[in-house]
Design a protein that fits this description.
Blueprint: H1 2-67, H2 71-115
Length: 116
């Protein structure tokens, strides 16, 4: 009987140690996810600045072509500007998605820390 109680108490202790390790890995995973999301946001911000600069350049060239009466060139620059705007919209969408992921990961981290 004493041996059975000893074995069951050791098993229970091992299960608790495993559970705390699982909580620690969840916290570590959440911290890594938060770092990755922050890096994604920084990359998206840089890409957004670059795309906006290209769009503004194309807009300026379009206006200059119109001022000089070159309608064909103005149409080409307008098409390029529209393409740049589509790329900006895509980057904005990705940026919003990354910010939402960051909020979720922070909430998961808070939840894991409370449960730990």
């Amino acid at each position: 009987m004493r041996c059975f109680v000893l074995i069951s108490s050791v098993t229970a202790a091992l299960m608790l140690a495993g559970a705390s390790t699982a909580f620690a890995s969840d916290i570590g995973r959440d911290i890594r996810d938060i770092r990755r999301d922050r890096a994604d946001i920084r990359r998206d911000e840089a890409k957004l600045r670059e795309e906006r600069a290209e769009r503004n350049y194309d807009f300026g060239r379009e206006l200059r072509a119109l001022e000089h009466g070159n309608l064909r060139a103005a149409e080409r620059w307008d098409a390029r500007r529209r393409q740049e705007q589509r790329e900006i919209n895509t980057v904005n969408r990705d940026f919003r998605r990354d910010r939402l992921d960051l909020v979720r990961d922070r909430a998961d981290l808070r939840r894991d820390r409370r449960g730990y």
